């Protein structure tokens, strides 16, 4: 636990010095929402229907680019060897990277979500709390899978293509549930999203547990 | 080893021919179905074989991560490839059947979605093995993917049901077997086909495992030869 916090603090400090990842991800998110909103160019009445699709598409693309940064950082000057040699449980490293990724993606959401509401004529303010819950649950599940496989692809030559290739099929069920939950939250609030939220929670539990159990097996060589 | 593959292959192929004979000529037409329904006797066995392969990948992957056994890793590679092949068969035959019965090649039905996603997962596994680089280096990562693939099955089932619940489908789900197979010849064609397809899949997995072993031995020998040449030169 202390090791996890130490790595999280270290990563956040590095990020705070340059704010490179958060800034680039937020701008990328803005551009994606713009492209998606205008690629559709829906009527003002129909526009709210596209909110879940736009939100989660933007989330997938920014997320896929964001999660790699954490391990690219460790590759420079062979920091990973140091972390591996340190007397810490590899699970702590996974947990730390997971937390940092969730925080970074959360910061991206903070920019992307209001903008989506703006472009697609939806007042998101009344449903902010349930929407935040859905986004948090979806992001945790996404990051649990993506963080694990980012560690796999970060040393491959074709890593930019390989990460989405490996992660997207595994994440489709999560995305289905997340989109349905968002749809329900926008329509009827938290009550309508009970089923989808239950699915999201169980995904988070399965994926985080599997990630934490399998990460030590691949980090040790 | 070779005799076993030969026997499996011969038995499987003979079984497939017999099952197809039963399916096309002996089994009576299913009630209210066109002749296209008979593709079931190829479609469902392929699905059994695909699931069989997927579970073999997961078990072999877990065994590899646990014991670091190279043999388990070779089996995982082979089973994943055969699994993709079988999954492709399921999708193609299912699509043809769907076109004949529902008038559409594809419909967002939970089971169709499940098969498509599984196919994509194992295709990405095969791609990772093909383009990931050195076998020894990529094996643990591929093993993690192999295990995640099986974890995804319940996940996909649950979320696909969610999808259907929200978008009620007028298309009835298909009958996999059970009550749909009233006639003994239907049962013979269905279960005989399933066993035969599993035998064929097992034969392919064994052959592919042996090929993988030969490939890796060749690579290792080539490396030794290159090193020796380097020393001599």
Structure description:
The complex is a heterodimer of chains A (221) and B (233). Chain A is globular. The model of chain A has no long low-confidence stretch (mean pLDDT 85). With 221 residues, chain A is mainly alpha-helical. Chain A is built from 8 helices and no strands. Chain A has one domain. In chain A, α1 packs across α5, α2 runs antiparallel to α3 and α6 runs parallel beside α8. The longest helix of chain A has 30 residues. With 233 residues, chain B is mainly α. Chain B has a single domain, classed as Four Helix Bundle (Hemerythrin (Met), subunit A). Chain B has 6 helices and no strands. In chain B, α1 packs antiparallel against α6. The longest helix of chain B is centred in the C-terminal third of the chain and has 49 residues. About 6% of the residues of chain B have low confidence. The chains are: A mainly alpha (221), B mainly alpha (233). At the A-B interface, α6, α7 and α8 of A face α4 and α5 of B.
Mean pLDDT of chain A: 85
- Coarse structural class of chain B: mainly alpha
What is the CATH-assigned architecture of chain B?
A: Up-down Bundle
* CA distance, first residue to last residue of chain B: 41 Å
Shape of chain A: globular
Averaged pLDDT of chain B, please?
82
Number of helices of chain B: 6
The major sheet of chain B is characterized as: none
First-residue to last-residue Cα separation of chain A: 23 Å
The value of Rg of chain B in angstroms is 21 Å
Number of helices of chain A: 8
In the CATH scheme, the class of chain B would be Mainly Alpha
Rg of chain A is 18 Å
Stretches of chain A where pLDDT falls below 50 for ≥5 residues? none
Total individual domains of chain B: 1
What is the topology?
The complex is a heterodimer of chains A (221) and B (233).
Chain A lengths: L1 H17 L1 H21 L10 H25 L3 H7 L4 H30 L8 H26 L5 H30 L5 H26 L2
Chain B lengths: L1 H25 L13 H28 L2 H33 L7 H22 L3 H32 L17 H49 L1
Helix pairs in contact in B: 1-6, 2-3, 2-5, 2-6, 3-4, 3-6, 4-5
